[in-house]
Each structure stands twice: as C-alpha cells, then as structure tokens.
Sequence to fold (200 residues):
Amino acid sequence: MKNVANEDGINHYNNERLEYLGDALLSTIVADYLFKKYPNSDEGFLTKMRSKIVKRKSLNTLAEKMGLDLILSSYSQGKLSSAMMGNALEALVGAIYLEYGYAFTKKYVIKKILREYIDIHGLETFDDNFKSRLLEYCQKHGHNVDFRLITKYKHDKRDRFKVAIVLNGNEVAYGDDFNKKSAEQAASKLALKELKPLSV
Fold:
C-alpha cells in the first residue's frame, strides 16, 4: 500500500482520520448490502441489523477474527486494548478506500469481511441489547427499574464508569466499563440472569 505522507513527510492520513473515514464507509457499505439482501424488510429491521454489525463490540470481534491483533502487536510497545481492534479495522477500510477507491473497498468489505466472518442469518434473531430486554421484562412484570451511576474513575488514564441496576429500590446488579452505555449493558446482562432463567 502506498505511503500517504506528503512531500514534507507529514502524514495527514493518521489513524484517527482513517478511522473516521473507515467508520463512514463501513456504515454505508453495510447499509447498502442489507438493503439489497432484505428487499422486503422495513427500516427498523435494517437499522438494527446494521447496528449489530458496525457497533464497537462487533468490530472489535471482527478485527480479532481477521488477525489484526497479531499485526498490531508487532508494532505496539504496550498492551493492546479490545477497543484498538475495531479502530484498526476502521482504519484499514479507510486506507483501502484511499488506495483503491470505493468500488474495490465495497467488494472487499462484502466478500472478505461480511461473508467470511459474519453469520448474517444468525444475527437476525440474535439480540444482545440487554438494557432493552431488561426494560421490556420489568415493564411486563410491573417492576420499577433505574440505572444509577455509582462512580466514575480513571483506569489506565481512561475514564471508567460503574453503574448499578436498581430494581424496586434495591441494587441488584453492577456493570463497569469505559463508557456509561456499555456499563449499563453489562449490568443489565447480570440483572437478567438474576431475574429469570435466561441464556444471555
């Protein structure tokens, strides 16, 4: 792949810029792919399916399946975080686009990523939005549920959030992650296990 630095040796296409570009490309390509694959599905279904594929957790898993962690580890001096995997995948897609253009990038994403590493049909019925499932369960069974931020602290120079699930006034589960939404999801998953015999 060609060097994207200019004549002065200044790399204007740094990783963060490539991640931004790759993120937009992935979202567009996946949306187009799903639109054609499910011609009779409504907007809600297509939006959920796209989210399942391009959300951060999915991209991290995809990058590991593709072996990007092995490539990154040879260049990184420190410990690789899972979040770096998805960022690397986005940067890769952005770099491919700059080198080969949109048509090639679209073909690569569909053939080498979507079809090779993702079980599209399995995603149709897979639901890992634990917060949404918890809210539905509580509404159905008449429980009052609240998400309470317990603390925000620093870990490895990054913010972490600890969230509690408060059910009918009692704290029943806790979640901890680098952003509040992920912490809520982690706590909701544990709360669901406590509330009913559910495979999560």
User: Anything to note?
Assistant: The first strand starts at residue 145 and ends at 155. The radius of gyration is 20 Å.
